Amino acid sequence: MLTQTLPPSFPAEYCVTELDALQYSRGCMVGTGIMIGGYALAVWQVLPLWGLPLLVLLVLPRWMINVHELLHIYDEQQLNPFICLMGASPVPLSILSLSYGQIRRQHFAHHAAPTTAADPDGYRIHGHWLQALWNALTSPEQSAGRWIAQHGLSGSLVFDLTVKLGLLVGLAWWDRGAFVVFWLSIRLVYGLGDFAFFRLVHHQRGEAGTFGLTLPPLLMTLSEWVFGQTVTHATLNHDIHHRNPYIAARSLMAARSLTAHSDGDSVHDCRA
Ligand SMILES: [Zn+2]
Ligand SMILES: [Zn+2]
Q1: Would you tell me how many other CB atoms lie within 10 Å of the CB of residue 162?
Q2: 155: CA distance to ligand 2 center in Å?
Q3: Fewer CB near the last or first residue (10 Å), C or N of the chain?
Q4: How many CB atoms lie within 10 A of CB 149?
C-alpha cells in the first residue's frame, strides 16, 4: 500500500491521532443532529423545504469525509455503534446499503490495489464518465449488491438493513413531501461526492491512476467555505493520502508541499 515516495522526515504532528478520531466521530454525531433537526424543522414548517437541499449540501460531505478518515483509524469495535450501522450517511442512503465494517474492508481493498481488477471500487472509476456518474449515483445499492454476492448476508448486516428500513419508513411516514426532498437531496449530494472521490481522483485524461487535483484560488476558498477544509484537502490530495493513509487530513496540504520540495526516496509511515 505504501509504495510511493514521501519525504522521510515529515513532522510527526502530520500523523493522525486519537484526538483527530475523536473530532471525526464528534463531527458525525453533530452532523446527525443537524440533519435530523433540520428535517424536523422542515416537517414543522419552520424551515422552508428549499432549505433542506442546502442543509444536506453543507452537512453530508463533512459526514462522508469524517467516516472516510475514521475508516483508517478505528475498526467497528472501536466506534460508536450508530455510526457503524449508518455507514456513509447519518440518514440511510437506501434500504440496500453497507455498514461501516463492510465499507472499511472494501476501502482497504481499494487502497491495496487501486484501479485494478481487484479494486472493489473500480466500477465507479472506469469507463465513460457518464457511466461512472451513474455508478456513483447508484453506488450504495451497487456496492451492497456486489458485497452480498461475494460474501453473503450476515446476521448483523440483516439487522442493520432492517433498522435502516425502519428509519426510512419512519421518516417518510412523518412527512412524505419533505422526505422526498430530503432523501433526493441526500442521494444527489452523496452521488456527486462519490464521483469526485473515486472517478475524478482516479481517472484523468483517459488514464486510470491516483491523482491530485488543483483548484483556482477562488474556487479553493469557496470549497473550503462550503464543504470545509477537511473535505476539500482530503479530496484534492487523494494521491498523498494513498501514499500514506495515516497522514491526517489537516496535514495533507503541508505533506504535499514537503513532497514537492523533497528528493527523498523513502516512505515515512506514521504507524512505523
Ligand atoms: Zn482512492
Ligand atoms: Zn482512504
Answers
A1: 11
A2: 27
A3: C
A4: 8
Find the ligand nearest to 198 CA.
Answer: 1
Task: Tell me how far the alpha carbon of residue 93 lies from the centroid of ligand 2, in angstroms.
Answer: 20
pLDDT tens string 167-213 = 999 999 999 999 999 999 999 999 999 999 999 999 999 999 999 99
**Which residues are registered as beta bridge partners of 204?**
207
71 CA distance to ligand 2 middle (Å): 7
* Nearest CA among 81, 50, 58 for reference residue 160: 81
Ligand 1 mean position to 59 CA, how many Å?
A: 22
**Measured in angstroms, how far is the CA atom of residue 216 from the centroid of ligand 2?**
25
Tens of pLDDT, residue by residue over 25-77, are: 999 999 999 999 999 999 999 999 999 999 999 999 999 999 999 999 999 99
Distances in Å between the Cα of 225 and the Cα atoms of 175, 190, 219, 222, 230 are 31, 18, 10, 5, 11
Q: Provide the terminal-to-terminal Cα distance of the chain, rounded to the nearest Å.
A: 14
